[in-house]
Amino acid sequence: MSRDPDFDADLAAYGGWRALAREQSLWAVWLYRAGRRLDRRPPGAARRWLSRLYWPLFRLVETVTGVSLPKGAEIGPGLRIWHFGGIFINESARIGARCVLRQGVTLGNRHPDGPSPWLGDDVEIGAYAQILGGVRVGHGARIGAMAVVLQDVPDGASAVGNPARVIAARGVRPSAAITADGGLPPPESAA
Ligand SMILES: CC(C)(COP(=O)(O)OP(=O)(O)OC[C@H]1O[C@@H](n2cnc3c(N)ncnc32)[C@H](O)[C@@H]1OP(=O)(O)O)[C@@H](O)C(=O)NCCC(=O)NCCS
């Protein structure tokens, strides 16, 4: 099987292949990438059979990991999910490249069949943050733990609270600055 450059970037964000044995969320990311490849296959018997296999596997991984990443969602390379459980991404949501999600995050609509969030590149979402509706979260933005985001967040800004308010506007910061345990770097190293 040929390599998937998006999954290679995911693996790099997780620190390599060993993460497959110790990070459940990576199983959900792998299945998401496999589902995207499946949708690119030409119609035919192989695609039909693989689709039949995909759906029970999707429900199994969703149940075991608590991470729901439907293949209809658009997710850029280098996704990093810290910890696991309670993560739901609507199938019409968009997540840019090198984004970070933490446990309990929802990207969903506000009303049935309503629009879903759009996340730029290098966005970091704190634990249990809920991002609802057709909001745009700009490149390099940070969303605080437990925030409920109902309005757009500008590039490089941080938003916290319920409903979320913007607390700072900053330049784009690469996710590489995240510490080994998924936290944010201490203030003295952020200069
Ligand atoms: C949003 C966040 C990135 C902001 O970090 P920061 O830019 O260093 O902001 P500060 O800590 O200086 O806080 C700025 C203000 O926002 C408030 N604030 C920060 N995070 C908040 C949050 N999650 N919810 C509500 N208010 C928050 C602070 O109390 C402070 O308010 P004040 O100005 O009235 O005193 C960070 O607080 C956060 O929530 N990160 C997510 C971490 C996470 O999910 N950890 C779980 C690891 S498993």
Automatic annotation (TrEMBL):
Keywords: Acyltransferase, Repeat, Transferase
Enzyme's top EC category: transferase
EC number, as in UniProt: 2.3.1.30
Family matches, as InterPro entries: Hexapep, Hexapep_transf_CS, LbH_SAT, Ser_O-AcTrfase, Trimer_LpxA-like_sf
CDD domains (alphabetical): LbH_SAT
Gene3D superfamilies with a match to the protein in the record: Hexapeptide repeat proteins
Keyword Cell inner membrane set for record: no
Highest taxon of source: Bacteria
Annotated catalysed reactions: L-serine + acetyl-CoA = O-acetyl-L-serine + CoA
PANTHER family from the UniProt entry: SERINE ACETYLTRANSFERASE
Family: Belongs to the transferase hexapeptide repeat family.
Protein name per UniProt: Serine acetyltransferase
Organism the protein comes from: Pseudaquabacterium rugosum
Lineage: Bacteria, Pseudomonadati, Pseudomonadota, Betaproteobacteria, Burkholderiales
